Amino acid sequence: MSVKKIDIQQAVMAADMCYAKRIRERLSEKGILMVNLIGSPGSGKTTLLEKTLGKDGLRSAVIEGDVATDRDAVRIDALGVPSIQINTEGGCHLEANWVDMTLDGLPLDDLDVIYIENVGNLVCPAEFDVGEDHKVAISSVPEGPDKPLKYPLLFTEASAVVLTKTDLLPYVSFDQELFWGDVARLNPEAPTMKLSCYNGEGLEAWSSTIKKWLEEKRRG
Ligand SMILES: Nc1nc2c(ncn2[C@@H]2O[C@H](COP(=O)(O)OP(=O)(O)OP(=O)(O)O)[C@@H](O)[C@H]2O)c(=O)[nH]1
Ligand SMILES: [Mg+2]
Ligand SMILES: [Zn+2]
Predict the structure, then answer these.
(1) Percentage with pLDDT > 70 across the chain
(2) What is the pLDDT of residue 1?
(3) Pocket lined around ligand 1, Cβ cut-off 6 Å
(4) Strand arrangement, sheet containing 113-117
(5) Which family does it belong to (predicted)?
(6) What is the 183 CA–ligand 3 centroid distance (Å)?
(7) The predicted structure's pLDDT at residue 4
(8) Any idea which ligand is nearest the CA of 169?
(9) How far apart are CA 138 and CA 40, in angstroms?
(10) Which atom of ligand 1 is closest in space to residue 66's alpha carbon?
């Protein structure tokens, strides 16, 4: 008797690709942009959303991915912005089938942008297509300047690279030449931004980038 073997990893990836395609079709039909924020725990993803949502004139919603708790979704909800929390119960990234399910709970007829805040992690969230239009790499000053080359996939895949917490530059040793040089080597085309949610640096540039991506998507 021959033994039938199924490569689970490949099967999971293939199923995920179907969900990602379905998400893109659903969102294209509605003209909604989806942006996937990926960075280490504490790099400032939720704070960036708090500082920009509702102030940029766009109708937004957020899908929050965390191992546990609904704390980030509660922070977004406090802004009056629709948010849904996915708890991965130990999983270190979001997958397209969960995102697809979550879309059913969002007011898709009244949205311009859906943000995904992925599970805080510089590694595997970059490997998974969750149906987004753009992945954004978020790296913060206190993490140190060596992250792009140590975690290259995210910085290669990203449509934009954002350095957060720039207000800390006077207090932390951070070699910007090294950081931006490595980013340029990995992903010469990606726009780059320096942001501080504490002093407001770069927040307008961030919102302009989101608006530009939305216009590009709607123009087709
Ligand atoms: N100095 C400084 N601190 C910041 C800035 N943005 C966020 N923080 C602080 O960094 C900490 C983590 O911020 P969060 O926005 O919760 O980080 P996160 O990436 O959402 O974290 P996880 O969801 O756990 O992955 C908080 O104490 C924020 O106040 C900034 O621009 N400058
Ligand atoms: Mg967060
Ligand atoms: Zn993972």
Answers:
(1) 96
(2) 54
(3) 39, 41-47, 72, 120, 164-165, 167-168, 196-198
(4) 83-87, 60-66, 113-117, 33-39, 134-140, 160-164, 192-194
(5) Belongs to the SIMIBI class G3E GTPase family. HypB/HupM subfamily.
(6) 23
(7) 65
(8) 1
(9) 8
(10) 23
Helix crossing, 8-30 with 96-103: angle to 10°? 30
CB distance 162 to 138 below 8 Å? yes
Query: Token pair 């934009």 is at which residue?
Result: 160
- pLDDT tens digits along 24-72: 999 999 999 999 999 999 999 999 999 999 999 999 999 999 999 999 9
- Which residue bears the tokens 């980013």? 183
Q: Give the helix/strand (H/E) hosting 23.
A: helix 8-30
Radius of gyration of the CA atoms of the chain, in A? 18
- Which residue blocks in 78-202 are alpha helix, DSSP H? 96-103, 147-150, 152-157, 176-186
- Range 8-219 has CATH code 3.30.1780.10: no
Contacts of 82-91 with C-beta under 8 Å, sequence gap 24+, read 82/106, 82/107, 82/111, 88/119, 91/67, 91/119
Cα separation, 62 vs 94, in Å, equals 13
**Which residues, 6+ apart, have CB-to-CB distance to 187 below 8 Å?**
155, 156, 158, 161
Rounded to whole angstroms, the Cα distance separating 60 from 139 reads: 23
Which token pair is 12? 């999971």
> What are the boundaries of each domain within the chain?
8-219
